[in-house]
Each structure stands twice: as structure tokens, then as C-alpha cells.
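Sample entry (373 residues):
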Amino acid sequence: MSSGGILEGNQLQLEIFRRKCMQMLDPDEIDYPMPWFLKLPTTQAWIYDNLFDKNTVSILSYSPYAFRILKRLITALEAAVDDPEEDEISDDLVSCFAELLTQRVKDEIDCIQEKRLVTYTIPIIDEDAPTVTILEAPNLLSSKGDTGNRTWDAALLLGTFLSSSGRHYVQDKSILELGGGLGFVSILCGKHLGAKHVLVTDASEAVLETAQQNATFNGVEDIVKTAVLEWGTPDIEYALGRGSDSVSYDLILGSDMLYEPRDFPALMSTIQDLFTRFPKSQVFISSAIRREETINSFLQACKEMSFFVERVKIDSLPEDKQLGFFHLTFFEVHIYLVTRSRRLLTCGREFLDMMSKKENCIESLDSPRVDGA
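Predicted structure, serialized as C-alpha cells:
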């Protein structure tokens, strides 16, 4: 196996397999390496060293998830063997699987609710691609009070945008995240994208305690801070004080906040408060499009507040083409740029238009206050 540099061919396939396992995607949805490549002793040794060696990798080893991955891996290896005399399955992998078999199998509900370290990889083909590791419950389904305990697809696409064509918005900037949950986007900005100060806000104090742990685990506790903020309340004064009274926020971020139209008045009130304090700030909101009428309600709410809105066109790659920040494409995800000033919106469009020559582009949107509509 190579050590550093750009990956290609079977080595890239193997690295993507590792990244998906580290992000703890559903084992049934992960593609395994080609059989002829998988059965090579060097391939099996690499998989063990990078996923199952408890002396070097603590994220997957001896968890129910590791058992499911290894069970499928052993099955795939058995199917790949043509000649048992010549093709052998790694003793290390077999021993690890045997040890996992002897451990108590956890109740399925416990596994869903259990928090574990999940590693997200920036979607580039470099072997040493930067990562963000988050303590979360990746199998948790959406329910009232629980949505902040995992990272959702809209945050992953926002992270993809910010780490590619949107990096300019983060570099040397102060950032405030609304509904930041466990802090994936904020930690990404502080750890790898050059943000000078980041404040994660959320309505749940318990969720923010984990977000601060995540910031510490990723080594950005001096850059990423947390504060409780419930939209539409005077809490904003306290939250801003928790970040730093002297900080002027350049960028406001939010993911999967456009779920319930009944929450929009409080959200709009908070955004208006932030625009009043930081009139030059820009807001990026990323949201899965579950119901078209919900997005129309959001655009109408922006019109009533005299906000200017533009949709950033960054399309999710098909799931089998993604290199990192892996996310489902069942629901389309939109990212919106919201500003108080038409000039700021125009500047944002001009910059993204320039970046579109290399990557994606910004798209005019039929909404009440959009340039070029």
C-alpha cells in the first residue's frame, strides 16, 4: 500500500471503504473491494491495521458495528477464495471475529441510542485527507428532542460546500452556527478551514456539552465555543456574551433548520437580531427538501423580513461516487445564501460564479427578493 499522495484505482477503492466504515455507514450499503483484490494478503493486512487493530484503532474495534462489518468482510473473503490451499483468510481478521463473537450482543435499541465516535473525511482523493471525529448516535432516527444527537445529511453537504468552493467564506472569519447540535460544521470550520473564532449554539444544553467535548477531542477547544440559544428569545445576548463580547460575526451557518414552518417566525427573529448586530454578516442555510411547501414558506418568511435570498447550486454526487462526508441522496438538499443587503448578495454571487469555473455554481431562484429572478 502507498504511504501518502493521491490515491487511484484499487487503493482509492480501499480507502473509500475505510472512510465509509469510519463514518459508520450501514454495512449493507458499503461496497467491498473487488474479490481478487480483497483476498490479497497485503489487502487483508491493510484492512486489519486500519480498522480492527485495537492497539492502533479504537473507533471501530469491539463494537457491535465492527462485528457487522467484519461478519460481512469474512463472508466476502470466503466467497473470494478460489483455492483454499493458496488463498488464505488473515489470521488477525479471523481472531478478531472470533473475539467479537464471544462478546455479549447488545440489544438493538441500545445500539441505536448508543453514542460512539464517528469519523468524517473531507471528500478529496488525498490519502491523508483531513477528518473530523464526532461523538454521536449515528443510527438515531428523527424524533422530538433527539435530532441534535447525530449529524444529518444537510450538514454534510454544507461541510462539502464550505471545504471546497465556499472555503473563502470561512478563512480568517468569525462564525456563529444556529442549531449546531454536536458541532460537526463548526468543528470543521475551526479545525481545517481557517476560521478564527466559532460559536456553536443550540437549544439543548445537554447536546452542547457533547459538542464541547467534540471540540476538545478535535483539538479546537480554544477556537470553538458553545452557548445555549433558543430562537426568538432574549437568550441571544447571553449567547453572544458566551462567545465573546468583542466578536463581530462574519458568517452565520445553519443545517436542517427548515423542518417545521411553525418555527420560522422565531428563526427569522433571531436572524434579524443577528443582522442588526452584524449588518455585514452572511447566512448559509442548508436543508433537505422534504416538502416543497415548507421551502416556499421559508422564502415567504424571508420576503416578509426584507431579506435577500439566493440558492447555492452544489449538487450531491451519486452515493457511489462520493469520496467523503458520505450522505444519502434520497432527499435533495438545498443551500441558501441569505443577506440583509443586496450588495452582499451580489458579492456572494460574484465570488461563487468565479468558483463555479472550477466546481459548482450559484443558481438564481424564483423567490420574492432574489436578484436575477
